[in-house]
# Entry
Amino acid sequence: MGIREKFAERFPVADVRPVATPTIPGPAGAPTGKPIASPIRLRRLPVERQWPAWFIVAFQATILLVGIGAWETGAKLGWIDPFFWSRPSAIFATMLTFFTAGDAMTDIGFTFRAAIIGFVLGTSAGTALGLSFWWSRNYAMLAQPYIVCFESIPKLALAPLIILVFGVGLSSKIAIGVALTVVVSTLTTFSGVKSVDRDLERLMYSLGASRWQVFCKVVVPSVLPWGISVLRVNIGLALTGAIVGEFIASQHGLGRAILYAGQTYEIALVWVAVLVLSMLSIAMYLGVSRLETVLMRHIKR
# Structure
């Protein structure tokens, strides 16, 4: 089998009806000239047409409104038990009361502070610890088993102990957030340290650079993208730590509001706290995403 046959078998073209091959007419009384090669029509790759942004937003809003309407209708007609699932109208009324007569801003501020401080401390400490492994391989080999062991431990199981040590205030929620984020940042940064270009380090040393100069000019810029990539994960972990700490013991916070509403069977209040927590998490995620974009742009410059 020749090359053309193999190519045709592996990349078949679309079926085309046989047509008469056009030829170049010769002079009068002369035989027909050479045939003109007809082009082969190949298959085109399927291209999906992208929807406009306004259409996507309108479609998403329609889905949301239809879901809320079906929920409300099902609760009124008895298809859904409103005692366990509540209804959108009751949730909206409870939300107005929560923000006007309740401790909404106090709870939101408490959870926000715990998550942000835990995120900043845990990410900074983990990044610094991962960068420190570059200075000594022996030190990295000595500390790595302990870090991996701490990573394998479910940190949320240590939450009651952390509450006992740090109390029921803000510090215990920050400590849980730090425990959840520090190991992730450490392992991610350490992976970036191990991927640093050794040839570039040797070149810097051959030009007379000190270890501190190599660390600042080569290691840190190479590892920063690794540390930045974990920011979105850490903000979710820090918020989880704050909520779990508030579940166990707290005087304020959205987690305490959810726990209180569940114990008193106020399902509408549970939904309100969950919705507010979702909005808070989305706002924090968008903020961290924006920070990541700015830092990556600064690094490329």
The chain is about 70% helix and 0% strand.
